[in-house]
Amino acid sequence: MKDKMIYLSPPNMGDRERALLSEAIDSGWAAPVGPQLDLFEKKLETLVENRRALALNSGTSSLHLALVLSGIQMGDDVIVGTFTFAACGNAVLYLGATPVFMDSEKETWNLDPDILLDYLNTCDKKPRAVIVTHLYGVPAKIDRIKTICEENEVTLIEDAAEAIGSRFEDRQVGAFGDYGIFSFNGNKLVTTSGGGAIICANEDYERGLHLATQANSDEIGYDHSEIGYNYRLSNLLAGVGLAQFEKLDVFVRRKREIFQYYQTNLHSSLHLASEPQGTFCNRWLTTPLLEETTCSPLELVRFLKDKKIHARPLWKPLHLHKVYSNFSFVGDRIAEGIYERGLCLPSGTGLSDDDLAYIVSQINSYLSSSRS
Description:
Layout: H1 15-27, H2 35-47, E1 52-56, H3 59-69, E2 77-81, H4 87-94, E3 98-102, H5 113-122, E4 129-133, H6 142-151, E5 155-159, E6 167-168, E7 171-172, E8 179-183, E9 196-200, H7 202-212, H8 235-246, H9 248-265, E10 270-271, E11 279-280, E12 289-290, H10 297-306, E13 312-313, E14 329-330, H11 334-339, E15 343-344, H12 353-371
Parallel strand pairs: 2-3, 2-4, 3-14, 4-5, 5-8
Antiparallel strand pairs: 1-9, 6-7, 6-11, 8-9, 10-12, 13-15
């Protein structure tokens, strides 16, 4: 057995991050403004084809501010792909708006464009926005979703928190919608410890920057005519992010190698989906599905914990959470079926080949014994 826990997706940092953090400290810019922060945004803008990037202190604050910039108000409906992290639903509720949770399609596990189109053609109350997540780094069918939103004059917000380095038709996801969202939390491919960003048009950048820095309207003193937020990313953390950005291609390559190792070596009762045509997946987490005749994902997760392997169930679809139980769900419960069969395996870029071999041997041994 391993002496130390193998974690799900820990950060991979070293001397370069330490050096650029020290450089940021030496610059004297410790506040949420400074040269490292400016450069970090420029790096992001290159990735998303020179749209503007507004760096903030979390992916959740980025979602919230994108909804604010979209003009979402109390009582508005916002469609949210149900198979995602709770931040997508929470951000809608921050504004007193109403989430309408929508089911997944089977190929990518993301929001189903057919259900979206049917809903927009038949609903009594037109939603103001759609939040679509590129789940576990697998791009949604964003071309169809974008077209549907444009034809129905609905704002499209892409939650690409898990999908930096993932592409749809050779274009970074997060760059298709009216707004895109990234997260730089400690478990993401690129981390700033905590952090996020909005991808947007130039006019939205200026408005978002004003709101994210407390909406002060007096150049010399302090005068606030509207509610603002303390959402800006620290310049020090941007220094860490710059070092991480230098390694993005290496990190994505390693994530894909880990996925391939699992796909080649895992027990036959675990199934990994192939890469959808026209996409490139960063494989942030490897997420196999168990055959229905084997154990439950939770049983396997508990077994692995005893072996000092950190695995997790998939995200619980939002419409199944108690806090969202009074809101509408639209679909055929595809997301529920995936959730009931899937789990997340350790996928950190620092995993050694020995770690991977140990993980697979433990999983395969357990599944072989459970079927005998």
